[in-house]
Amino acid sequence: MARSVKHSVNRPPTPDEDVRDSPERDELTLGEIINIKLVESGEKENLMELVRDRLVESGWKDEMRIACREHVKKKGRKDVTVDELIRVITPKGRASVPDAVKEELLDRIHNFIRSAAL
Question: Where is this region: Disordered (predicted)?
């Protein structure tokens, strides 16, 4: 039976096969280890919430909403797909994340790594 996989707008889909059981490699990358530890500890969800809050506080979310509405208005409501909107807006969104938000996130990740003694 085929499994239905929901894809996230923000993250690539999770592979069906656990990367730790993959025959092509014997070891996890450092990034994979950090991600596993973040998820297991619940810190990843805390970081996601922090980023969401900071993006709202900075006005970034409103800017992205406006950019989406302008694109839809320009192209016509019936001529825009969600996939097209994501493709057009994502580069602008990534480029416009405030440096302070990025710095705070990196600081929190660094502190987590230090405290987890990875």
Answer: 1-25
